[in-house]
Each structure stands twice: as structure tokens, then as C-alpha cells.
Design a protein that fits this description.
The protein has 8 helices and 5 strands, in the order ααβαββαββαααα. The chain is an alpha+beta fold. Strand 4 and strand 5 form a beta hairpin. Helix 2 packs across helix 4 (102-111), helix 6 packs across helix 7 and helix 7 packs across helix 8. The protein is globular and about 40 Å long.
Length: 196
């Protein structure tokens, strides 16, 4: 089977989000492709600094307002969201008007992967995935201990991205063992571009 045209371009962004969301993203691109809509991921993980720059745009720096989320308040800051564009016939990313019927295909194929679609808050290109965790919990680094969700979030924790964010936001209050600590340090170094 041929690859959807947006897949390769999407990979740098999908590589920046949690591995489960990455898998869902790949399936999302394929599912939309099978319904005749080519999408490309144009944004994934965003550092707290880049979220701040984005928030400043249209407020204290030039440009139009593009987000209402302050650093930590966006699922992008936790490696748990990505944004897409629709490819035109020249495979260039476009953001058609909200009345374009292709958005429903893009949205529904994402929802079928268990993602939340940003349509409910008027952000059609946006998808996020955060099983039974609120943004407040994500910011505080809370891991519910009981239930399978605790295991899922344990996986998120060790995988690095959530861990790195929690490290930045709440490290003094987080109890972690040495092995996880090492993983966090590695993840933070990777995110900040510091060598280990
Ligand atoms: Zn988004």
C-alpha cells in the first residue's frame, strides 16, 4: 500500500509527542487518506518557552493572537497534542474554512483513534490525547495510583515527555527513584538540547 503523502513530513512532529499518540497519529493520517483526505502534522510538542512566545504573539509582540493557552496550559506542552493541515493537490499544507466538509473527515478519523478533536473549542486542526487526566493534574505531575490508568500514566511518566515537563514544573515535590531520575535527566537534556 502506498504511503499517504503527508506521512513523512509529519514524522518529526509525531516523534516529538508521546509514543502512543504517535501511533494514533500515524493511524489517523492513514485513515484520512483512505477516505480521500491527505493531512499533515504541522505541530507536536511545544516547550514552555515556545508556548510563552506563542502566547506573547498579538499581545506583547507583533502578529495575530494564535493561542489563549499560557505555558503548561496546552496539551502540546505535555507532548500530548498535535495539529494538522490539509494537503492540497500540490501537497502543500492548507487550512480551509471551517465549512469545508473535509474537516469532518479529518475530525472523525481522529476521534476514531480515541483522540479529542479541537472542534469543540473552535480549533479544527487540533487533536489531543490524555486518558483521564486533567491539565491541572498534568501540570502538577499527579499520577493516579489505582486503576489501569495509573499504569498508563506510569508509562507516560517513564517515557520522558510528561516526566520532563513534571520535572520542570514540580521536581522538588516529585518522589522518584534513581532509574527514573536518570531517564528524566536524559529526556530533559534531549528537550533542552543540552548534551548529557
Ligand atoms: Zn493544537
Amino acid at each position: 500500500m502506498a504511503n499517504p503523502p503527508g506521512l513523512l513530513q509529519s514524522m518529526p512532529y509525531l516523534d516529538s509527542v508521546h509514543s502512543t499518540l504517535k501511533k494514533k497519529g500515524i493511524a489517523h493520517i492513514n485513515a484520512a487518506y483512505n477516505k480521500g483526505v491527505n493531512i499533515v502534522v504541522t505541530s507536536g510538542y511545544r516547550s514552555l518557552n515556545s508556548q510563552q512566545s506563542l502566547y506573547n504573539q498579538g499581545r506583547t509582540t507583533p502578529g495575530e493572537i494564535v493561542t489563549n493557552a499560557q505555558p503548561g496550559d496546552s496539551w502540546h506542552n505535555h507532548g500530548l497534542a498535535y495539529d494538522v493541515a490539509i494537503l492540497n493537490s500540490n501537497n502543500q499544507p492548507t487550512w480551509p474554512s471551517k465549512s469545508d466538509p473535509r474537516w469532518e473527515i479529518v475530525g472523525n478519523t481522529g476521534i476514531n483513534q480515541g483522540l479529542n478533536w479541537g472542534k469543540s473549542f473552535d480549533d479544527y486542526p487540533h487533536f489531543d490525547w490524555h486518558p483521564e487526566i486533567t491539565i491541572t493534574e498534568a501540570k502538577l505531575g499527579i499520577i493516579p495510583k489505582s486503576s489501569s490508568i495509573g499504569q498508563v500514566l506510569g508509562g507516560l511518566f517513564i517515557s520522558g515527555f510528561m516526566a520532563a515537563i513534571w520535572y520542570n514544573l514540580n521536581y522538588p515535590n516529585t518522589r522518584i527513584n534513581r532509574k527514573v531520575n536518570k531517564e528524566i535527566t536524559k529526556a530533559v537534556n534531549k528537550l533542552t538540547g543540552r548534551s548529557a
